[in-house]
Structure formats: C-alpha cells, structure tokens
Amino acid sequence: MPESTADIFTALAHPTRRQILQDLKDGEKAAGDIAARFTSSGPTISRHLSVLKVAGLVTERRDANRILYSLVGDRLALSVGEFLSSVCPEQMLLRSIRPHPESTEPTKPHSV
C-alpha cells in the first residue's frame, strides 16, 4: 500500500478525525471552532488535525492569529476509490453493467 494511502487509513481510524472531516464538509473552519465541538483538550484536537494534514485530507491557512482548516477536494474519495478498485476489481465491472439511474437498460460491459 502506498504511504499516502496508509496515512489516509490511519487518519480515518479515529472517530474524532472522521467527525472533523464531516464538520469541514460545509466549508472552512477555525481550529478553535473545531476544538470547541469536542470534550478533548486543544492539544489533542491539534494532533488530530495534524494527522489529517499529513494524510493530505485537510489544508490549513493562517488568517491573522487564527488557523483555518478546509478539506482537500476529492482526495479522500479518490484515494479510497483507488484502494477499493485494487482489492475489488469486480466492482468496476458491476458498475459498468448496472443500469444507470436515468436509464432502464443496462449498459454493455467494456472489453478488458
């Protein structure tokens, strides 16, 4: 498993980090606002944010004396999707023959 994929799964292993990602889905948040949602100490939340940053799932920017965090685009979906495709290649085929929501006819499978 590539290092970055390992970092992503490490980041996802803790429920606090998963909650932080869910909280950031609506947009950028200050570190203090993120920490205020949890009973953990500020330094603990800071370490969680650091793990998410190392995994490439969040970015930070400074605005005066505040640190603002935001999600990194589709990084999570692409990384997890790539991993799932490598361990479940049959899912790619199933998606290609499954009917699309706007169609009642299944699509023809792609030749491999």
UniProtKB/TrEMBL annotation:
Keywords: DNA-binding, Transcription, Transcription regulation. Gene3D superfamilies: Winged helix-like DNA-binding domain superfamily/Winged helix DNA-binding domain. Residues 1-91 form the HTH arsR-type domain. The keyword Cytoplasm does not apply. InterPro entries: ArsR-like_HTH, HTH_ArsR_DNA-bd_dom, HTH_MetalResp_TranReg, WH-like_DNA-bd_sf, WH_DNA-bd_sf. It holds the Pfam family HTH_20. The keyword Mitochondrion does not apply. PROSITE patterns: HTH_ARSR_2. This is HTH arsR-type domain-containing protein. It comes from Leifsonia kafniensis. The lineage of its organism: Bacteria, Bacillati, Actinomycetota, Actinomycetes, Micrococcales.
